[in-house]
Write a structure and sequence with these properties.
Layout lengths: L1 H4 L7 H4 L9 H24 L9 H13 L25 E2 L4 E4 L4 H10 L14 H4 L3 H11 L5 H11 L3 E3 L10 H5 L3 E6 L3 E6 L23 H7 L4 H7 L14
Antiparallel strand pairs: 1-2, 2-3, 4-5
């Protein structure tokens, strides 16, 4: 609902001629980040002033702000100088490209990047072409340029593209499935995942927080609670008496569900 209402779904119209949803609960997660930032700012203000305050973070408005960060463009002026949008991104040809054995994001960016790319794919006729020498000129030719990448990408394997791009300092990355992300060398090197054991559900993969602190290393202190596991504590904190809670709860301990339903 929020993706539709905030303009998020409509961002794909210039690309696919139809609105679409991001394949993620992205508005929920954006709002969570906004909430945590707002709370931290509120705590900082309380530390300085000694006074607290009520904080409201609406998902709808948060998603609109998030979308307009880079797409407000000419519509930010009054009267408008243009429609909202980001031409370099809202191009149907801008996407992961199919290589000879998979997919890769191949993204020449700088003036030199494009000249090196033209040489690699054998389009020497485009080297030095005034249309592509500078970003100010290239910005009108993104569909054509990304189309060149799409044509050339299947002629080489993903590893060959990565090798060339690394040497030429061109941004490039293989498209990695989430199911394989744990095998990524960098992910392994930084210890992003660990296998832990839940007292009821058994072993599972835990992902540490990406942020790190020199004086407070990440530590998993609690597992996800089972349904009703903390009902008694929550109700006591809400002011109910032990007898009232016992009357309200059928059992003092939560039932452990079958792991297949977790």
């Amino acid at each position: 609902m929020i993706q539709a209402a905030s303009g998020f779904a409509a961002l794909s119209i210039p690309i696919t001629d139809a609105p679409s949803y991001a394949p993620s609960v992205i508005c929920d997660k954006i709002s969570g980040l906004a909430i945590s930032n707002a709370i931290l700012a509120g705590l900082f203000d309380r530390q300085r002033t000694g006074e607290g305050q009520e904080i409201e973070v609406p998902m709808f408005e948060t998603a609109i702000e998030f979308n307009l960060m880079e797409t407000f463009a000419g519509a930010a002026f009054e009267p408008p100088l243009g429609k909202p949008g980001y031409a370099r991104i809202q191009v149907r040809e801008r996407k992961p490209f199919r290589t000879a054995d998979g997919f890769a994001c191949i993204m020449p960016y700088s003036d030199k990047n494009w000249q090196d790319f033209f040489a690699f794919i054998g389009r020497h006729d485009l080297i030095g072409d005034a249309r592509f020498l500078l970003l100010s000129e290239r910005s009108s030719w993104f569909p054509f340029l990304y189309g060149l990448i799409a044509e050339a990408a299947p002629l080489h394997t993903t590893d060959e593209w990565v090798a060339f791009c690394d040497e030429a300092n061109i941004p490039c990355m293989p498209v990695i499935d989430l199911a394989d992300i744990g095998d990524d060398p960098h992910v392994k090197a930084v210890g992003l995942f660990e296998t832990v054991e839940h007292p009821y559900a058994g072993k599972y993969h835990s992902i540490r927080r990406p942020a790190s602190y020199s004086a407070a290393p990440f530590e998993l202190r609690y597992h996800a609670p089972m349904l009703g596991q903390h009902s008694r504590e929550v109700l006591l904190e809400a002011g109910l008496t032990e007898s009232e809670i016992s009357d309200a709860l059928c059992e003092s301990d939560p039932k452990v569900p079958d792991t297949q339903t977790l």
